[in-house]
Write a structure and sequence with these properties.
Order of helices and strands: HHEHHEHHHEHEH
Structural class: alpha+beta
Radius of gyration: 18 Å
Strand order of the largest sheet: 1-2-4-3
InterPro entries: Nitroreductase, Nitroreductase-like, Nitroreductase_HadB/RutE
Shape: globular
Strand content: 5-15%
Enzyme class: oxidoreductase
CATH topology: NADH Oxidase
Organism: Komagataeibacter saccharivorans
Number of strands: 4
Keywords: Oxidoreductase
Oligomer: single chain
CATH superfamily: NADH Oxidase
Protein name: Putative malonic semialdehyde reductase RutE
């Protein structure tokens, strides 16, 4: 079974990165539903290293402000929610309940490089799922990399020991941006079939 054109439009063809938000709030139930969808996406060995901090209050947005690059301040500060997409470098401590593979925890506990690579790669993958799940729920998503990760980690993640990857602002919009979609590489420029 495949998505119909309406589903493909919602997730890809007509989905756009927002430039402004309307006043409609994003409720806690929506955030829970969002995470439930994200958690179903595949990760290698079901390692699930992605961690998400949902910034929803004015005081927390103000704590985030100094870490933002100048070009991102307006859109982040006016977004109903901004998500810190992070990963847990010690994700393998949960592997015994997440994966049926015997001794899988030890694979990562014994190899710091493998653990770091796996956490970053799969946490990024889960961040991509977050964007698509948000679109599926009718939200607009603005992924951002213009921020100081060390400042974000100090302000929001130090207690958990998580590491920041990127930000995603979420909310509702009143339609697509007024400018046309930017071009994308053509199949022959970006793909090789062998």
């Amino acid at each position: 079974m495949a998505l119909d054109d309406a589903g493909l439009d919602l997730l890809f063809r007509k989905a756009r990165t927002p430039v402004a938000w309307n006043d409609r709030p994003v409720g806690a139930d929506t955030l829970r539903q969002l995470y439930e969808l994200v958690s179903l996406g595949p990760t290698s060995g079901n390692c699930c290293p992605g961690r998400f901090v949902f910034i929803t209050t004015e005081s927390c947005r103000e704590r985030l402000r100094p870490a933002l690059s100048a070009g991102n301040v307006q859109r982040v500060m006016t977004a109903p929610v901004t998500v810190i997409v992070a990963h847990d470098p010690l994700f393998f401590d949960h592997m015994e309940t997440l994966s049926p593979i015997p001794d899988i925890r030890q694979w990562f506990a014994a190899d710091v490089g493998l653990a770091e690579e796996t956490a970053f790669r799969n946490g990024t993958l889960e961040g991509g799922y977050l964007i698509m799940a948000a679109r599926a729920l009718g939200l607009s998503a603005l992924p951002l990399s213009g921020f100081d990760a060390a400042m974000v980690e100090d302000a929001f993640l130090a207690q958990q020991g998580w590491q920041a990857n990127f930000l995603v602002s979420l909310g509702y919009t009143d339609g697509p941006p007024p400018t046309p979609r930017a071009s994308r590489p053509a199949f022959d420029d970006a793909c090789v079939v062998i």
